[in-house]
Amino acid sequence: MKEIIEIGKKAKEAAYELAHLETSAKDSILRGVATNLVKATASILEENRKDLENAKEMGLKGAIVDRLTLNEDRIRGIAEGLEQIAGLEDPVGEVLEMKKRPNGLMIGKKRVPLGVVGVIYESRPNVTADVGGLCIKTGNVCVLRGGKEAFNSNMAIVSIFRDVVAGMGYNPDMIQLVTNTTRESANALMKLNEYLDILIPRGGAGLIRAVVQNSTVPVIETGVGNCHVFVDTSADLEMAKDIVVNSKTHRPGVCNAAESLLIHKDIAEKAIPLIGQALLDAGVEVRGDAQVCSLLEDAREATEEDWATEYLDYIISAKVVGSLKEAISHIHTYGSSHSESIVTSDYGNAQFFLDRVDAAAVYVNASTRFTDGFEFGYGAEIGISTQKLHARGPMGLKELTTTKYVIYGSGQIRK
Amino acid sequence: MKEIIEIGKKAKEAAYELAHLETSAKDSILRGVATNLVKATASILEENRKDLENAKEMGLKGAIVDRLTLNEDRIRGIAEGLEQIAGLEDPVGEVLEMKKRPNGLMIGKKRVPLGVVGVIYESRPNVTADVGGLCIKTGNVCVLRGGKEAFNSNMAIVSIFRDVVAGMGYNPDMIQLVTNTTRESANALMKLNEYLDILIPRGGAGLIRAVVQNSTVPVIETGVGNCHVFVDTSADLEMAKDIVVNSKTHRPGVCNAAESLLIHKDIAEKAIPLIGQALLDAGVEVRGDAQVCSLLEDAREATEEDWATEYLDYIISAKVVGSLKEAISHIHTYGSSHSESIVTSDYGNAQFFLDRVDAAAVYVNASTRFTDGFEFGYGAEIGISTQKLHARGPMGLKELTTTKYVIYGSGQIRK
Questions:
Q1: pLDDT (tens digit, 9 = 90+) per residue, B199-237?
Q2: Mean pLDDT over residues B155-180, rounded?
Q3: Could you tell me if B318 and B194 lie in one domain?
Q4: Which of B220, B365, B408 sits opposite A409 (nearest CB)?
Q5: Residue range A46-55: mean pLDDT, rounded
Q6: Most-buried pick from A165, A370, B95, B237 (CB within 10 A)?
Q7: Are residues A215 and A246 in the same domain?
Q8: Coil, strand, or helix at residue B148?
């Protein structure tokens, strides 16, 4: 596809320039964009209105329309996000380790930008600014392929980035929006190995699966979270109740929300009525196994399918397990290796759970909702990786870099 | 494909056991295998002879047959390699960083095994033992898909691994050889996302390309090296001569050998006859641009294709460039981002080259041949990554691990 190849070429060209920009220049761009976004609020909202009208015509539903919607507050929030990124430490250029070999070679490992980052995403126009800001800060050129439902809003935001970059005398192709929003353009990006160093899908499970299945460009898989809270025999039940309710209801539509509750059989009789009722009171539908249903009147019966479901809604599955090991086995069978939590006061069980559960983030006595770049102290987040290669868990600025070896010699040849 | 899915299931099961083996147990396995390999020399050589006879019937040529051939020395070498791996530090379990967040959460990043590592490779039976050893040391289950030309040798080696593991009471499926060596089994591995965490192709450019193009499992791309040595105006020409000849001829068939020589125009008249003659004397065919040919009688004229060719042979392309920037631009146009070296005595040019050249390893005044896990001090190597995700350059034990976040809480919920 011609447009995509042209974009790739331009991106590659711009990458060499951006990779070597001083931190101060990159921060000036981010602050300039933040200022101009706020100044251009009226025209951005006008473009956003076009998208919202089209969305109505397309018959799009509540949550999507909400994610698509911009307003003064949200634009100010986007600008503040860029200011925050400008205030973070620049990871590029750091030498992680340097050692002297017996032959005198000095071998260092230096952090450098990845190069060209492609992102395929849906609905939310704020992703455009977030990704643009994170990529510029880390010296990466970005190629943005947003959804057609947000095209006008995305274009308005990208234009502001490009104008600021060009106004400072740099190559505006550091940030490019793909104007073709058909499936073909997404597919072409997935095969653009010559120009893209990495491709990140951000959106629903369907989008992520399609990119993982079809991309020959290295992909970072993000997002799907079937997270569990396991309440152990020795748990402080009040703490367990608070953690379960928070994990489930603090924001049910996101990937680090709990979807399943596991309870040790030895405390089932006390724990299920207490925690179950708290969930019901918070408006959560509880889908339990036979024992849960017998102890909680308003629970409905769970099916096999429930254990594997990421509801992203006010629904939770609940099951009694015979042991810590059974809990872990259940988590490995049905979980998505995102965030898993145990509530316990037993030291050995806490350590065993931390050690044995294979997931991006494993918690003792805390809500699964903390798996987040900001909560982890990274100041920013480009996504939460649920795969094992390159990055796992919340990805901040460092995860948008790679390394290269720099070797200082004095004439060494290999014997 | 049924065999592959069965292997995947067994691998996944074994992975949880292997991930939590103590270092001492893993090292005992490696030392046991080393001992038994040497003891079984006669029977391994018998199996190897079957492969060599089949190879003759298949009409395979010199280099492949050489790589396929085992003898007492090579088997002893393989065993010593395993002993060495046993002596290395176990990377698994290290907590890379741990910090306390304002809410009291202690968030640590812990090194853990990847899980199940698939490797598709050709000819060399020593890869079987190398990969097996590196994976066991790092707590990873491996699924080995060797070429059919080495099947009997690979099977003999894997059987020794499995017997030692089983003899110590562990699950032998920690290491499995795919017995189906058709293209279908390789293709099935490339789609085995449910069970494989990573797939590494080791072999020729064709194999690597096929895996990168077809795999939905995350791939680490290894190997192709079109490496350059650039001789700057201020170079010590004797040093330059030694580095160029060493980079080219120390072992021409490997990926870190130099394939192209770039010379600054201001020293062309002195450098080309000196370095060119040394290359010719070492039996290297020099394919030069017009100026190289005019200064070196026995050079033949290079075509455009030569600049992009990885010869893996006693051939080098040679070109005069007008500036350091032109040299870097040439490297970025034709290189494969593997290993690049500048010979210079100018501080600024050295730093500029290190900074600007985008490659896995960038050298000042040293041979490109040093890009190697052993030379870098890792004690072992599973391959040399030429991509940017997860690992770049020589991959040792650490590159066979990922991380997970372990979070110690005391009841924290998200506000």
A1: 999 888 889 989 988 999 999 988 789 999 999 999 999
A2: 98
A3: no
A4: B365
A5: 96
A6: A370
A7: no
A8: helix
To the question of pTM greater than 0.80 for the whole model, the response is: yes
Q: Please judge whether A366 and B239 are an interchain contact, meaning their C-beta atoms are less than 8 angstroms apart.
A: no
Minimal C-alpha gap between B39 and chain A (Å): 32
Instruction: Looking at the structure, tell me whether residues A340 and A208 fall in a common domain.
Output: no
Domains contained in chain B, number: 2
CATH number of the domain enclosing A96: 3.40.605.10
Residues of A (361-380) whose Cβ lies below 8 Å from B: 361-367, 369-371, 375-377
Q: Does one domain contain both A79 and A215?
A: yes
State mean pLDDT over B1-6.
94
The residue to which tokens 């964009």 are assigned: A33
**CATH label of the domain that carries residue A309:** 3.40.309.10
Same domain, B214 and B260: no
A235 and A213 part of one domain: no
B249: nearest CA partner in chain A: A414
Question: Which whole number is the average pLDDT over A145-167?
Answer: 97
Residues 33..92 of A with a Cβ closer than 8 Å to B: which?
Answer: none
Q: Tell me: do B272 and B319 sit in the same domain.
A: yes
Residue B375 lies in a domain: no
Q: Do B413 and A246 touch (CB under 8 A)?
A: yes
Average pLDDT over residues A90-103: 95
Tell me the two tokens of residue A401: 């870099």
Domain that holds residue A95: 2-221+387-407
Tokens for B220?
A: 């680490």
H or E segment and range at residue B166: helix B151-167
